[in-house]
């Protein structure tokens, strides 16, 4: 519980100094049964991720579930990120997205009839910590903090 409180406090501090970040949804993406909206990665969002990782990585215990299984076959930056941060999607490998659903099979999904991808664009206005489920999905909010500044 103490570790969680430290993480939440760090996120609160970062959020209190962070500007709002506009995000542009650019395409629907489907991989490994997940169907999501993919976003550009603006410098402001990359900087925010770097701040969060720097603040909370020292409080981390071990490797994120699922990443340990991937480690024996990982190489290069993926392997380095798992070893250093416990997760491969950090820094250059950060892929902002909004998971819309997960399917039990991996058949291609027709996007006809879906809203235009631009409908998922918007402004990122808070920093939050979630408990993740078996598949990395957010299942319970542990804390959320509004970003304080104007969009960059």
Overview of the structural elements:
Helix content is 29%, strand content 27%. A three-stranded antiparallel beta sheet has the order 2-3-4, with no helix packed on it. It has a two-stranded antiparallel ribbon with strand order 1-5. A two-stranded antiparallel ribbon has the order 6-7. The longest helix is centred in the first third of the chain and has 16 residues, at 2-17. It is globular. Helix 1 (2-17) packs antiparallel against helix 2. The chain is built from four helices and seven strands; from the N terminus they run H-E-E-E-H-H-H-E-E-E-E. The protein has a single domain (2-146), classed as Alpha-Beta Complex (Cyclic Phosphodiesterase, Chain: A). The model has no long low-confidence stretch (mean pLDDT 90).
How is the secondary structure organized here?
Layout: H1 2-17, E1 21-23, E2 25-31, E3 34-39, H2 43-56, H3 67-70, H4 76-85, E4 97-102, E5 122-124, E6 126-132, E7 138-146
Antiparallel strand pairs: 1-5, 2-3, 3-4, 6-7
In short:
This protein is an alpha+beta fold and 152 residues long. The protein is built from four helices and seven strands.
> Which structural class do you get from the secondary structure elements?
alpha+beta
Shape: globular
| The CATH topology | Cyclic Phosphodiesterase, Chain: A
Order of helices and strands: HEEEHHHEEEE
- Residue windows where pLDDT falls under 50 for at least 5 positions: none
Number of beta strands: 7
Provide mean pLDDT, rounded. 90
